[in-house]
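Re: the request from the purification team.
They wanted to know what the chain is likely to look like in 3D before they choose a buffer screen. I agreed to run a prediction and write the result into the notebook, where they can find it.
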Amino acid sequence: MWRQHWPLMWHLVLTWQWPVMSQSLLAWQKQWHKRGAMKNPTNWPLIGMLPALLMNLGPQYYDWMTSILIENGGTFQFIGPWLWLVGGSRRQDSLVTADPRNIEHVLRYNFANYPKGPDFTAIFHDLLGDGIFNADHDLWRLQRKTASLHLNSRSCRDFADATIFSAASRKLLPILRHNSGSSSTVDFQDLMLRFTFDTISIVAFGIDTRCLSPDLPKVPFAAAFETALECTSFRFSTPMMSWKVLRCLGIGWEKNLSNALHEIDAYVQEVVDDRRKAFTSNPDMASDLLTCFLRMEEGNGGTLKAHDDKFLKDVIINILLAGRDTSALALAWFFWLLASHPKVEEKLVQEARHVLLPTNGELPAEHEILHTREKLNQMVYLQAALLESLRLYPSVPTDYKYVMSDDVLPDGNQVRKGQQFIYSIYSMGRMESIWGKDCLLFKPERWLVYNSENSYRLASNVSPFQYTAFNAGPRTCLGKDMAFTLMKVVVSTILLRYSVVCLPGQEKIVPKLCPTLYIKDGLQVRVQPRQPL
């Protein structure tokens, strides 16, 4: 029987949670919580606030952190155990904030002082390598410049639009029809992940994944990618030396991470081989993003080689994280919110019918493409609803920075060299100081400025540093425009023909503790044909 628990025993030893001390402190912590006598985590001798963090490492983590930030006026100093210094870790404490002033200072005015840093890079290196999400300085600039030149080109935008429009009408709708009816259920989160995986693979790599067939076949890479993200997130709550030992021993979540990485590596190697072969035979072929990197000359004094397989695989994984997870998870949370807000859904359906359907209101054939850029730009209420959903459930709930040198933040808090600066995007959407007393409500109208009773436009007075769902400053998301195009197409395509009804028990879904905001256990729904006009 003890063999079943030895990975946990190793974890307790390697994170210096001596059984007697750990159990006692956790018990005391629970008692304090029950009595309501403690607003903030207790700063215990030697181990700091670690017990409270460990207690809340689960679906409640983001709301727990939000409550602490609210209690402390938007910024909080988390004190970690001094033993985290062993093995060279510099994560002894962190400053956590949801204050837009601090975030603008870090992401805009003093950007160079706050890179990702060595701790973040080490935690994600096994998964993301030297890709754009994990890179700093010259390596980051080179990748961003290459990606920006491609994504901002007219040819890329037109190709991406055509791919998304076609996938929605010719791939997504047949799946919905096949799974519609009172007896069929589908994991909507999984379906959206398949859709974004398929479209981003075509746009960025020229690869059709064929995962969008009506029978929804298993996608080993997708499962491995989610496992890798979840296992990587555990490293944030573990001293660096500890998870490195676990990795060397091949036990616990590090074993699961290693297995997932093997599956991921096999897939991306196949993608690299395919594009390299196509590029070699036809260097002038139409450019997807990966081909742009293949064309890239050596840079940074010869230390970065575009034709190195490791670098290209890092590019692929980072693009998939950006293009697959973020939009898919945003759509899953969006449709979950719609299920409890029928008036918002009704307005969205009316807008989609008005913009996309002919004057007689008849639905065209399933395979016909209804969307254009011009029509998408007219769907203002849908844009507002998506912005509002991402305010409450941002696809990336938390971001991390490393402090290069001592600094004083606008709210008066000080940060020291080697400290970690964390800003909670999830918490920002729940701050009354930013959004008012109705901050917890799903209210698309907050994004609209009304010109008359039936005429409105998007508000333009929201600072990107109080709404950081797409990051802000020099690291602003390059794919923001493509993401909104994809989300608008998916939402309007579905709502014109179907209602997405959550199954009983899905009213209280919770997020998974992960770098991206997965719904724990997915979103189980029924797809029902919408009644015609």
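For the purification team: Confidence is low (pLDDT under 50) at residues 1-38, 84-91, 297-304.
Please add any questions underneath this entry.
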